[in-house]
Amino acid sequence: MLRCLRTISIASLTLLATACSTMGESGSSATESSPEAAAGSQEVGGKVVLVSHESFNLPKKLVTAFERESGIDLVTRSAGDAGTLTAKLSLTKGNPTGDLAFGVDNTFASRPLDEGVFATYEPSLPDGAAEFALEEGADKLTPIDVGHVCVNVDTEWFEKEGIAPPETLADLVDPTYQNLFVTPGASTSSPGMAFFLSTVAEYGDDWPDYWTSLLDNGAKVVDGWEDAYFGDFTQGGGKGVRPIVLSYDSSPAFTVPKGSAESSTAALLDTCFRQVEYAGVLEGAANPAGAEAVIDWLLSTEVQAALPTAMYVFPVSDEAEVPADWAVHAVQPSAPLTVSPADIAANREQWLTEWTDVVTR
Question: What is the pTM of this model?
Answer without folding.
Answer: 0.79
